[in-house]
Specification:
There is one protein chain. This protein is an alpha+beta fold. The protein folds into three domains: 186 residues, Nucleotidyltransferase, domain 5 (2-Layer Sandwich); 61 residues, no CATH class; 56 residues, SH3 type barrels (Roll). The protein has ten helices and 20 strands. It has a seven-stranded mixed beta sheet, with helices on both faces. Strands 18-17-16-15-19 form a five-stranded antiparallel beta sheet, with no helix packed on it. Strands 2-1-4-3 form a four-stranded mixed beta sheet, covered by helices on one side. Strand 17 and strand 18 form a beta hairpin. Helix 3 packs parallel to helix 8. The model has no long low-confidence stretch (mean pLDDT 85). The structure holds zinc ion (ZN).
Amino acid sequence: MKKLVYVVNKNEKPLMPCKASKAKKLLKNEKAEVFEYEPFTIKLKFGASGYKNKVVLGIDTGSSNIGIAAVCGNRVLFQAEAKTKTSLIVDRMTKRASYRRTRRNRKTRYRKPRFDNRKRKDGWLPPSIQENVEMHIKMIKMVNKILPVTKIIIETAQFDTHALKEGKYKLNNFEYQKGPLYKEENLKMYIRKRDKYLCQMPKCKEEKGVLECHHIIPRRKGGTNKPENLILLCEKCHKKITGKEEQFIDIFYSITKGKRINTKDFARTQAGKTKIVELAKTIAPVEQTIGAITKVDRKKIGLPKTHYNDAVAIASQGRKIKTLNYYYKFVNKGRGQYQLRKGIRSQMIAQSPEREIEGFKRWDKVKVIDTGEIGFINRKRTSGQFGISDIEGKTIYGSKTFRKLKKISSGKSILCEMKKIPKGGLK
Ligand SMILES: [Zn+2]
Protein backbone atom coordinates (compact mmCIF):
# COMPACT_ATOMS: atom_id res chain seq x y z
CA MET A 1 0.00 0.00 0.00
CA LYS A 2 1.57 3.24 -1.14
CA LYS A 3 0.60 5.70 1.51
CA LEU A 4 0.94 9.42 1.01
CA VAL A 5 2.41 11.51 3.78
CA TYR A 6 1.21 15.09 4.05
CA VAL A 7 3.76 17.86 4.46
CA VAL A 8 3.68 21.31 6.01
CA ASN A 9 6.53 23.82 6.00
CA LYS A 10 8.12 25.28 9.10
CA ASN A 11 5.42 27.94 9.23
CA GLU A 12 2.81 25.19 9.18
CA LYS A 13 1.61 26.10 5.70
CA PRO A 14 0.65 23.01 3.67
CA LEU A 15 2.78 21.76 0.77
CA MET A 16 2.27 18.86 -1.63
CA PRO A 17 2.34 15.38 -0.04
CA CYS A 18 5.28 13.02 -0.46
CA LYS A 19 5.85 9.27 -0.50
CA ALA A 20 6.17 7.46 2.80
CA SER A 21 9.75 6.45 1.97
CA LYS A 22 10.80 10.07 1.51
CA ALA A 23 9.08 11.10 4.74
CA LYS A 24 10.91 8.33 6.55
CA LYS A 25 14.23 9.64 5.28
CA LEU A 26 13.41 13.23 6.29
CA LEU A 27 12.39 12.14 9.76
CA LYS A 28 15.48 9.97 10.14
CA ASN A 29 17.80 12.82 9.12
CA GLU A 30 15.93 15.12 11.47
CA LYS A 31 14.96 17.43 8.64
CA ALA A 32 11.34 17.04 9.62
CA GLU A 33 9.21 16.22 12.62
CA VAL A 34 5.81 14.62 13.08
CA PHE A 35 3.08 17.24 12.85
CA GLU A 36 -0.02 15.07 12.99
CA TYR A 37 -0.47 11.33 13.35
CA GLU A 38 -3.77 10.93 11.63
CA PRO A 39 -3.70 11.64 8.72
CA PHE A 40 0.07 11.30 9.02
CA THR A 41 1.66 14.71 8.40
CA ILE A 42 5.23 15.89 8.81
CA LYS A 43 6.55 19.38 9.40
CA LEU A 44 9.73 20.46 7.66
CA LYS A 45 12.26 22.09 9.93
CA PHE A 46 13.98 24.12 7.24
CA GLY A 47 12.88 26.06 4.17
CA ALA A 48 9.68 28.05 4.15
CA SER A 49 8.38 27.44 0.67
CA GLY A 50 8.02 24.38 -1.45
CA TYR A 51 6.41 23.22 -4.62
CA LYS A 52 2.68 23.70 -4.76
CA ASN A 53 -0.02 22.78 -7.22
CA LYS A 54 -3.72 23.35 -7.72
CA VAL A 55 -5.61 21.18 -5.30
CA VAL A 56 -9.39 20.88 -5.65
CA LEU A 57 -11.42 19.72 -2.68
CA GLY A 58 -14.72 17.93 -3.38
CA ILE A 59 -17.41 17.68 -0.71
CA ASP A 60 -20.35 15.30 -0.94
CA THR A 61 -22.67 16.77 1.68
CA GLY A 62 -24.96 14.56 3.69
CA SER A 63 -27.01 14.47 6.87
CA SER A 64 -25.22 11.48 8.35
CA ASN A 65 -22.29 10.83 6.02
CA ILE A 66 -19.95 13.25 4.31
CA GLY A 67 -17.63 12.36 1.43
CA ILE A 68 -14.36 14.27 1.15
CA ALA A 69 -11.70 14.10 -1.55
CA ALA A 70 -8.77 16.26 -2.61
CA VAL A 71 -7.59 16.00 -6.18
CA CYS A 72 -4.59 17.39 -8.03
CA GLY A 73 -4.48 16.97 -11.80
CA ASN A 74 -5.24 13.31 -12.43
CA ARG A 75 -4.32 12.14 -8.96
CA VAL A 76 -6.32 11.74 -5.77
CA LEU A 77 -4.34 13.07 -2.81
CA PHE A 78 -6.83 12.46 -0.07
CA GLN A 79 -10.12 10.61 0.25
CA ALA A 80 -12.26 10.22 3.33
CA GLU A 81 -15.66 9.56 4.74
CA ALA A 82 -16.99 11.29 7.84
CA LYS A 83 -19.91 10.30 10.02
CA THR A 84 -21.72 13.15 11.73
CA LYS A 85 -23.31 12.93 15.16
CA THR A 86 -26.66 14.23 13.92
CA SER A 87 -28.62 11.25 15.24
CA LEU A 88 -26.93 11.64 18.62
CA ILE A 89 -27.99 15.29 18.76
CA VAL A 90 -31.56 14.44 17.82
CA ASP A 91 -31.60 11.86 20.63
CA ARG A 92 -30.26 14.32 23.14
CA MET A 93 -32.71 17.04 22.17
CA THR A 94 -35.71 14.72 22.56
CA LYS A 95 -34.34 13.59 25.89
CA ARG A 96 -33.84 17.16 27.06
CA ALA A 97 -37.37 18.10 26.03
CA SER A 98 -38.84 15.20 27.94
CA TYR A 99 -36.74 15.96 31.06
CA ARG A 100 -37.92 19.55 30.96
CA ARG A 101 -41.52 18.54 30.48
CA THR A 102 -41.55 16.18 33.45
CA ARG A 103 -39.73 18.72 35.59
CA ARG A 104 -42.32 21.36 34.72
CA ASN A 105 -45.14 19.00 35.48
CA ARG A 106 -43.56 18.10 38.78
CA LYS A 107 -42.90 21.62 39.95
CA THR A 108 -45.72 23.76 38.60
CA ARG A 109 -49.40 23.47 38.16
CA TYR A 110 -50.86 23.57 34.72
CA ARG A 111 -49.82 26.56 32.74
CA LYS A 112 -50.46 27.46 29.19
CA PRO A 113 -47.72 26.56 26.77
CA ARG A 114 -45.48 29.52 25.97
CA PHE A 115 -43.48 28.57 22.97
CA ASP A 116 -43.54 31.95 21.38
CA ASN A 117 -41.73 33.99 23.99
CA ARG A 118 -38.18 33.36 22.94
CA LYS A 119 -36.19 35.21 20.38
CA ARG A 120 -33.76 33.41 18.19
CA LYS A 121 -30.53 34.91 17.02
CA ASP A 122 -30.12 35.73 13.35
CA GLY A 123 -28.79 32.77 11.45
CA TRP A 124 -30.08 30.31 14.02
CA LEU A 125 -30.33 26.75 12.77
CA PRO A 126 -31.87 23.71 14.46
CA PRO A 127 -29.18 22.00 16.60
CA SER A 128 -28.96 18.90 14.42
CA ILE A 129 -28.41 21.01 11.30
CA GLN A 130 -25.98 23.29 13.13
CA GLU A 131 -23.93 20.27 14.15
CA ASN A 132 -24.02 18.99 10.58
CA VAL A 133 -22.75 22.33 9.26
CA GLU A 134 -19.94 22.39 11.83
CA MET A 135 -18.82 18.88 10.92
CA HIS A 136 -18.60 19.81 7.22
CA ILE A 137 -16.52 22.87 8.06
CA LYS A 138 -14.29 20.93 10.46
CA MET A 139 -13.52 18.45 7.69
CA ILE A 140 -12.79 21.20 5.16
CA LYS A 141 -10.49 22.91 7.65
CA MET A 142 -8.73 19.65 8.43
CA VAL A 143 -7.87 19.07 4.76
CA ASN A 144 -6.97 22.72 4.29
CA LYS A 145 -4.44 22.32 7.09
CA ILE A 146 -2.53 19.52 5.35
CA LEU A 147 -3.06 20.28 1.63
CA PRO A 148 -2.86 23.61 -0.25
CA VAL A 149 -6.54 23.75 -1.25
CA THR A 150 -7.17 26.24 -4.06
CA LYS A 151 -10.83 25.52 -4.79
CA ILE A 152 -13.74 23.79 -3.04
CA ILE A 153 -16.60 22.17 -4.95
CA ILE A 154 -19.65 21.36 -2.83
CA GLU A 155 -22.65 19.29 -3.81
CA THR A 156 -25.51 21.38 -2.47
CA ALA A 157 -28.54 19.65 -3.99
CA GLN A 158 -29.62 16.39 -5.54
CA PHE A 159 -31.11 17.93 -8.64
CA ASP A 160 -31.96 21.27 -10.12
CA THR A 161 -35.66 21.93 -9.70
CA HIS A 162 -35.55 25.26 -11.52
CA ALA A 163 -34.42 23.47 -14.63
CA LEU A 164 -37.39 21.11 -14.40
CA LYS A 165 -39.95 23.83 -13.81
CA GLU A 166 -38.89 25.61 -16.94
CA GLY A 167 -39.46 22.43 -18.88
CA LYS A 168 -36.08 22.97 -20.44
CA TYR A 169 -33.08 21.33 -18.94
CA LYS A 170 -31.11 24.40 -18.33
CA LEU A 171 -29.17 23.63 -15.19
CA ASN A 172 -28.98 27.27 -14.23
CA ASN A 173 -25.97 27.51 -12.02
CA PHE A 174 -24.33 24.33 -13.10
CA GLU A 175 -22.47 22.93 -16.02
CA TYR A 176 -25.29 21.95 -18.26
CA GLN A 177 -23.31 22.11 -21.47
CA LYS A 178 -21.95 18.69 -20.59
CA GLY A 179 -24.62 16.85 -22.55
CA PRO A 180 -27.93 14.99 -22.41
CA LEU A 181 -26.85 12.38 -19.85
CA TYR A 182 -26.75 15.00 -17.12
CA LYS A 183 -30.15 16.39 -18.02
CA GLU A 184 -31.62 12.90 -17.96
CA GLU A 185 -30.14 12.06 -14.57
CA ASN A 186 -31.41 15.34 -13.16
CA LEU A 187 -34.91 14.40 -14.27
CA LYS A 188 -34.66 10.81 -12.99
CA MET A 189 -33.47 11.91 -9.57
CA TYR A 190 -36.38 14.29 -9.34
CA ILE A 191 -38.90 11.59 -10.27
CA ARG A 192 -37.43 9.10 -7.78
CA LYS A 193 -37.67 11.63 -5.00
CA ARG A 194 -41.15 12.80 -6.03
CA ASP A 195 -42.45 9.22 -6.05
CA LYS A 196 -40.71 8.53 -2.72
CA TYR A 197 -38.65 5.64 -4.14
CA LEU A 198 -41.76 3.44 -4.46
CA CYS A 199 -43.31 1.72 -7.46
CA GLN A 200 -46.39 3.81 -8.33
CA MET A 201 -48.41 0.98 -9.83
CA PRO A 202 -51.63 0.80 -7.80
CA LYS A 203 -51.36 -1.99 -5.21
CA CYS A 204 -47.66 -2.58 -5.83
CA LYS A 205 -45.53 -0.08 -3.88
CA GLU A 206 -42.46 -2.20 -4.43
CA GLU A 207 -39.34 -0.50 -3.14
CA LYS A 208 -36.78 -3.23 -3.42
CA GLY A 209 -34.92 -3.90 -6.62
CA VAL A 210 -34.61 -1.70 -9.63
CA LEU A 211 -36.96 1.22 -10.02
CA GLU A 212 -37.34 2.64 -13.49
CA CYS A 213 -38.73 5.86 -14.89
CA HIS A 214 -41.53 5.11 -17.30
CA HIS A 215 -42.80 7.49 -19.99
CA ILE A 216 -46.58 7.45 -19.61
CA ILE A 217 -47.09 8.54 -23.20
CA PRO A 218 -44.15 6.84 -24.94
CA ARG A 219 -41.48 9.04 -26.50
CA ARG A 220 -42.14 7.60 -29.96
CA LYS A 221 -45.76 8.75 -29.70
CA GLY A 222 -44.80 12.29 -28.84
CA GLY A 223 -44.62 11.93 -25.06
CA THR A 224 -42.58 14.66 -23.41
CA ASN A 225 -39.85 14.62 -20.80
CA LYS A 226 -41.94 16.70 -18.43
CA PRO A 227 -42.19 15.26 -14.90
CA GLU A 228 -45.92 14.85 -15.36
CA ASN A 229 -45.30 12.34 -18.16
CA LEU A 230 -42.94 10.29 -16.03
CA ILE A 231 -43.70 7.78 -13.30
CA LEU A 232 -41.60 5.45 -11.17
CA LEU A 233 -42.22 1.73 -11.69
CA CYS A 234 -40.49 -1.40 -10.47
CA GLU A 235 -38.86 -3.67 -13.01
CA LYS A 236 -41.71 -6.21 -12.87
CA CYS A 237 -44.51 -3.70 -13.39
CA HIS A 238 -42.53 -1.96 -16.11
CA LYS A 239 -42.22 -5.22 -18.00
CA LYS A 240 -45.88 -6.08 -17.47
CA ILE A 241 -47.11 -2.95 -19.19
CA THR A 242 -44.74 -2.90 -22.16
CA GLY A 243 -46.83 -3.08 -25.30
CA LYS A 244 -49.93 -2.11 -23.30
CA GLU A 245 -48.83 1.43 -22.46
CA GLU A 246 -52.04 3.01 -23.77
CA GLN A 247 -54.26 1.20 -21.27
CA PHE A 248 -52.39 2.77 -18.41
CA ILE A 249 -52.16 6.37 -19.58
CA ASP A 250 -55.21 7.60 -17.66
CA ILE A 251 -54.40 5.67 -14.47
CA PHE A 252 -50.84 6.96 -14.37
CA TYR A 253 -51.75 10.51 -15.28
CA SER A 254 -54.23 10.63 -12.43
CA ILE A 255 -51.32 9.79 -10.13
CA THR A 256 -48.72 12.19 -11.48
CA LYS A 257 -50.93 15.16 -12.27
CA GLY A 258 -50.10 18.02 -9.98
CA LYS A 259 -47.77 15.84 -7.92
CA ARG A 260 -44.80 17.71 -6.57
CA ILE A 261 -42.00 17.24 -4.12
CA ASN A 262 -42.77 18.51 -0.69
CA THR A 263 -40.28 21.36 -0.53
CA LYS A 264 -40.90 21.92 3.18
CA ASP A 265 -38.83 18.84 3.90
CA PHE A 266 -35.86 20.43 2.17
CA ALA A 267 -36.06 23.93 3.51
CA ARG A 268 -34.05 23.21 6.64
CA THR A 269 -31.36 21.04 5.16
CA GLN A 270 -31.07 23.59 2.38
CA ALA A 271 -30.52 26.31 4.95
CA GLY A 272 -27.70 24.18 6.34
CA LYS A 273 -26.10 23.80 2.93
CA THR A 274 -26.28 27.52 2.27
CA LYS A 275 -24.47 28.04 5.57
CA ILE A 276 -21.79 25.47 4.65
CA VAL A 277 -21.11 27.34 1.39
CA GLU A 278 -21.02 30.67 3.20
CA LEU A 279 -18.45 29.42 5.73
CA ALA A 280 -16.40 27.49 3.18
CA LYS A 281 -15.99 30.69 1.19
CA THR A 282 -13.88 32.08 4.00
CA ILE A 283 -11.42 29.22 3.42
CA ALA A 284 -11.17 29.05 -0.39
CA PRO A 285 -13.23 29.93 -3.49
CA VAL A 286 -16.35 27.76 -3.67
CA GLU A 287 -18.28 26.24 -6.58
CA GLN A 288 -21.55 24.36 -6.26
CA THR A 289 -22.72 21.26 -8.03
CA ILE A 290 -25.66 18.83 -7.92
CA GLY A 291 -26.03 15.11 -7.26
CA ALA A 292 -27.21 14.35 -10.79
CA ILE A 293 -23.90 15.62 -12.20
CA THR A 294 -21.91 13.72 -9.57
CA LYS A 295 -23.64 10.46 -10.38
CA VAL A 296 -22.96 10.67 -14.11
CA ASP A 297 -19.36 11.75 -13.48
CA ARG A 298 -18.71 8.91 -11.02
CA LYS A 299 -20.01 6.35 -13.50
CA LYS A 300 -17.91 7.92 -16.23
CA ILE A 301 -14.78 7.44 -14.12
CA GLY A 302 -15.94 3.93 -13.30
CA LEU A 303 -16.01 4.15 -9.51
CA PRO A 304 -18.40 2.19 -7.27
CA LYS A 305 -20.86 4.11 -5.11
CA THR A 306 -19.28 5.26 -1.87
CA HIS A 307 -19.27 8.65 -0.19
CA TYR A 308 -15.58 9.24 -0.85
CA ASN A 309 -15.92 8.17 -4.51
CA ASP A 310 -18.74 10.68 -4.94
CA ALA A 311 -16.38 13.29 -3.54
CA VAL A 312 -13.66 12.17 -5.98
CA ALA A 313 -16.14 12.57 -8.85
CA ILE A 314 -17.10 16.02 -7.57
CA ALA A 315 -13.49 17.19 -7.28
CA SER A 316 -12.33 15.73 -10.61
CA GLN A 317 -15.51 16.76 -12.47
CA GLY A 318 -15.59 13.52 -14.43
CA ARG A 319 -11.94 13.43 -15.44
CA LYS A 320 -10.22 10.02 -15.42
CA ILE A 321 -8.29 9.82 -12.22
CA LYS A 322 -5.90 7.66 -10.22
CA THR A 323 -7.51 6.84 -6.88
CA LEU A 324 -5.89 5.67 -3.65
CA ASN A 325 -6.24 2.14 -2.31
CA TYR A 326 -7.13 3.41 1.14
CA TYR A 327 -9.37 6.02 2.67
CA TYR A 328 -9.73 7.73 6.01
CA LYS A 329 -12.79 7.22 8.10
CA PHE A 330 -13.83 9.88 10.60
CA VAL A 331 -16.55 9.46 13.18
CA ASN A 332 -17.80 12.32 15.30
CA LYS A 333 -18.54 10.89 18.72
CA GLY A 334 -18.83 13.96 20.83
CA ARG A 335 -17.04 13.56 24.10
CA GLY A 336 -19.38 14.93 26.68
CA GLN A 337 -21.50 12.90 29.01
CA TYR A 338 -23.84 15.43 30.47
CA GLN A 339 -25.89 13.07 32.56
CA LEU A 340 -25.88 14.28 36.16
CA ARG A 341 -28.36 11.97 37.75
CA LYS A 342 -28.88 8.31 37.44
CA GLY A 343 -30.91 5.53 39.01
CA ILE A 344 -34.50 5.01 39.99
CA ARG A 345 -34.44 7.80 42.58
CA SER A 346 -32.36 10.17 40.48
CA GLN A 347 -29.38 10.16 42.80
CA MET A 348 -26.68 12.63 41.94
CA ILE A 349 -23.67 10.82 40.64
CA ALA A 350 -21.69 11.91 43.66
CA GLN A 351 -18.38 10.71 42.42
CA SER A 352 -18.43 11.25 38.74
CA PRO A 353 -15.97 8.83 37.18
CA GLU A 354 -12.40 9.96 36.80
CA ARG A 355 -11.59 11.46 33.43
CA GLU A 356 -8.52 9.35 33.25
CA ILE A 357 -7.97 5.87 34.67
CA GLU A 358 -4.55 4.24 34.56
CA GLY A 359 -3.57 6.79 31.92
CA PHE A 360 -6.45 5.97 29.60
CA LYS A 361 -9.50 8.04 28.81
CA ARG A 362 -12.58 7.73 26.66
CA TRP A 363 -12.04 7.42 22.90
CA ASP A 364 -8.31 6.83 23.23
CA LYS A 365 -7.10 4.76 20.30
CA VAL A 366 -5.46 1.63 21.66
CA LYS A 367 -3.78 -1.53 20.53
CA VAL A 368 -4.53 -4.80 22.27
CA ILE A 369 -1.05 -6.12 22.98
CA ASP A 370 -1.57 -9.87 22.61
CA THR A 371 -3.74 -9.82 19.48
CA GLY A 372 -2.62 -6.64 17.75
CA GLU A 373 -6.21 -5.48 17.28
CA ILE A 374 -6.78 -1.75 17.15
CA GLY A 375 -9.81 -0.11 18.69
CA PHE A 376 -11.18 2.73 20.75
CA ILE A 377 -12.01 2.91 24.45
CA ASN A 378 -15.74 3.33 24.77
CA ARG A 379 -16.16 2.41 28.42
CA LYS A 380 -13.95 2.82 31.44
CA ARG A 381 -14.17 1.35 34.89
CA THR A 382 -12.29 2.35 38.03
CA SER A 383 -11.01 -1.21 38.27
CA GLY A 384 -8.90 -0.50 35.19
CA GLN A 385 -11.04 -2.61 32.90
CA PHE A 386 -11.94 -1.02 29.59
CA GLY A 387 -14.50 -1.70 26.91
CA ILE A 388 -13.05 -1.58 23.41
CA SER A 389 -15.01 -0.92 20.23
CA ASP A 390 -14.16 -0.40 16.59
CA ILE A 391 -14.69 2.93 14.84
CA GLU A 392 -18.28 2.03 13.91
CA GLY A 393 -19.07 1.43 17.58
CA LYS A 394 -19.17 -2.37 17.41
CA THR A 395 -17.79 -3.98 20.58
CA ILE A 396 -14.47 -5.78 20.18
CA TYR A 397 -13.97 -6.47 23.90
CA GLY A 398 -16.53 -5.90 26.62
CA SER A 399 -13.79 -5.78 29.19
CA LYS A 400 -10.03 -5.68 28.87
CA THR A 401 -7.50 -4.82 31.54
CA PHE A 402 -5.26 -1.78 31.05
CA ARG A 403 -2.20 -4.03 31.34
CA LYS A 404 -3.07 -5.53 27.96
CA LEU A 405 -3.50 -2.17 26.21
CA LYS A 406 -1.12 0.21 24.51
CA LYS A 407 -2.17 3.77 23.75
CA ILE A 408 -1.75 4.80 20.11
CA SER A 409 -3.30 8.23 20.23
CA SER A 410 -5.15 10.39 22.67
CA GLY A 411 -8.94 10.52 22.61
CA LYS A 412 -10.57 13.22 20.52
CA SER A 413 -14.20 13.90 19.82
CA ILE A 414 -13.63 12.91 16.20
CA LEU A 415 -12.21 9.42 15.77
CA CYS A 416 -10.05 8.61 12.78
CA GLU A 417 -8.92 5.39 11.16
CA MET A 418 -7.27 4.51 7.89
CA LYS A 419 -9.08 1.80 5.96
CA LYS A 420 -7.70 -0.31 3.17
CA ILE A 421 -9.82 -0.77 0.08
CA PRO A 422 -9.67 -4.38 -1.10
CA LYS A 423 -8.68 -4.94 -4.74
CA GLY A 424 -11.64 -4.49 -7.03
CA GLY A 425 -13.21 -1.97 -4.67
CA LEU A 426 -15.79 -2.28 -1.93
CA LYS A 427 -19.01 -4.26 -2.38
ZN1 LIG B 1 -44.38 -2.52 -9.17
